[in-house]
Fold:
Amino acid sequence: MERKKISNVFVKLYFFLLPVIANKVEEWKKKKEAILRGEVPPDEDVVTKEEDIYAVNEHESDEEDEVSAMDTGEGSGQSFIAHVPVPSQKEIEEALLQRKKRELLEKYASEALQAEEGQVKQMMGLDT
Structure:
């Protein structure tokens, strides 16, 4: 009985914090866009400390090219190309986030709540 009470508290907390977090993220995005457009002077904590994880440095790229050239043996005229789809960084992040959400729901939500959620998703056509 105690476990069910705790899981209900976590579910309520999750659904309470979800819109709060979404609002903070939206505020951050708007502030960052305004800074990039030049409408607002940049804050140190927003622009200077933030690292663009999708940026490619020329120096790193050159080193990777040299290593891949040695690995594939480009000097011998042979090359190997793997024809498999490689997920992007965003796809990987989304998959990890979905897995973490699913694990937390399985850990803290009751089976009845999970079944109800599944029924609602199925009715809405969001079954994934």
Notes: Helices lie at 2-37, 44-48, 58-72, 89-108, 111-124. Residues 1-51 form one domain. The chain has five helices and no strands. The two ends are 31 Å apart (CA to CA).
